[in-house]
Amino acid sequence: MTASATTASDTAPRPGLAERFDRHAGRLMVLPAVVVILCFALFPLIISAYLSLTRFALAPGGFTLKYVGNFNYKKLLFGSQQYHLLGTFKAFGVVGWVLVAAMAALILFLLGRYFMSGRATIFGTIGRLITSSLAMGLTVLVVATIVAGGVPGTMVTTLIYVGVGVAAQFLLGLGIAMLCAQAIRGRNFFRVLFFVPLMVTPVGIAYTFRMLADIQKGPFAPLLQSLGVTQWSWATDAWSARLMVLVGDTWQWTPFMFIVLLAAIENQPRDQVEAARIDGANGIQIFRDITWPAIAPVAATIVLIRLIEAFKIIDLPNVLTGGGPGLATESMTLHSFIAWRTQDLGGSAAVGYMLLFVSTIVCVSFFNFMVRPARRLES
Amino acid sequence: MTENRSLMRRLFEPKSLDHQAPASKVVTYGLLLIWSLVVLVPLYWVLITAFKNEGDVANGPFYLPFIDFQPKTDAWHFMLVENNTIGPYINSVVVALGSTFLAILVGSLAAYALVRIRFRVKLAMVAIFLILLVGVIVAVATFGIPWEIALAVAIALFVIALFTVGRRMKLSLGNSDVEFWIISNRIMPPIVAVLPIYIMFQQLALLDTQFALIATYMAVNLPIVVWLTRDFFAAIPIDLEESAQIDGASKLRVFFTIALPLVRSGLVATFLLVLILAWNEYLLALFLTNADAQTMPVLVSAQNTTRGPQWWNMSVLIVVMIAPVIIIATFLQKHIARGLLVGAVKG
Description:
A: MetI-like fold, B: mainly alpha, MetI-like fold
């Protein structure tokens, strides 16, 4: 009793350094991380915003930055660089109008349902309006460049990589995971083998696929030659070049989807599946009613992770095709990099900011309108 | 027929969820075999190309070593002895290990505090901080004020604000806000930040050093570490930490001696993931290195422009680059997959 009283009175009046540290321990432990993020993310982000409003020029003994307002953005969106970022537009055909109208109708329907639900809030409305306008804008862009026969710019190319690539990786990963989740021999062997491509450096993948797709010396050359393909090269055609980038990306990232989805499928409620099987449910019904609700939150989350990363693609197109033919395979990150290499710092930062803008809205929208509902599905 | 099937089901039930008809089993194995080939063929081709020489590649595709071509180690000798591959390789190892270690240290420290210790950050102070930051940048960039002076003034103003305005404000940010902010930084494409980081290291004369890469990689991988480790910390029972705290251990001590050892396997998973990301990183290395601190991905990609497609040499580089990570993946696949799953489940 006395001893404890003494210790209490010993420590109380002496708030030493260690104790003062301990009182603020939470804040101090987070501090290094916050400082790092400030120095390498927030601070550069602000500088970049400033750079995107200037024109960079080399001058004797260094460089000068001239403030030019939104000139860089105007050039990219409406001016001489429009073909590069957005593409070359053609007037819509019938199909184009139908697609745009369908998208508009879908958006109006979803917005209408939201307002009718009686749960509309100010922030919810603003968020949905931002998402809808971006979705509408990107639809018009894709229709005006791809569907109408124009030339897609780097933004559309990036969207192709993100949209088609992530969808292909998810579907393939899900399919292989469903196969591997069955009672088969060698499950662990397949699991380890299928995981490997995720580890391979993207630059290496790019070269490997260039070797494989070589028309003269690649392993498939005799096959292609017997089919009469001798002069054609995938690298000279816009769509086949884009397809090669997508193939490389899919080869690398399908394992990611596979490994996480497999673990999620193995965690699904087994007793429910057993019961359903005894009741005579077929595979499709079991997947739709038991497996899918169980894995949907994980599925939505990994698609979000891939969306975030897919917008940053540069290694594959840079090494595989160098962005060509023309700018057919150039992603926005590569576009920004090329602008930097040609001393156009302002333009480079502006492209980077456009990418940040699009990817943030897409990822946040996906989180709000897909991942959250999927998580609610579970509970 | 029905009896037969129920017998089979009984045989297979303890081992598995379902049992397949032979026909669908053949389809399953067929599809898995096809995907195995998709995975293996590229890797196999790189591996055998590394043992070819110019003639073997030029004279058309050869598939089987010892049968249609004799494997040679010329390319290995060229790349590893005559060419400077060891330098970039050491750079890659140092940068990947160093940045991963630091990211784990800083990230898990933050994640632990965000999970266990409740604290609030005054919203007003965040706003003042941001305003001052923008002020400093504008002052330096447009008015040409030396950055040391601008920074000193800003810090002074911030400290004054901390003791005057800061104490009156009620509105504040909690742990989850800080956590969300840290994690959300992963959404930012690195290309947006890399130009100022380049300029920053240029001003500090640290361009083309391992330090620049370690610091930058740590920063870009920090959100992943916080995001994964916070779930590991949240999953461990709090009792041990509390009893240690009652015994008078400081929070930092509790973290290092009790919390950290408890999440060991989770940390291993996170470590491996971040290590692989740092090992394969390309864009930042492309910007921030030139010759001295060049890493393997940059070296591999540089092969294209300097000497045309010399597949055999390039294959050697790719093999030495992917061999260690494939070995890691093979033996520690379960750990990595677990780390990925924890992240995806809790989000």
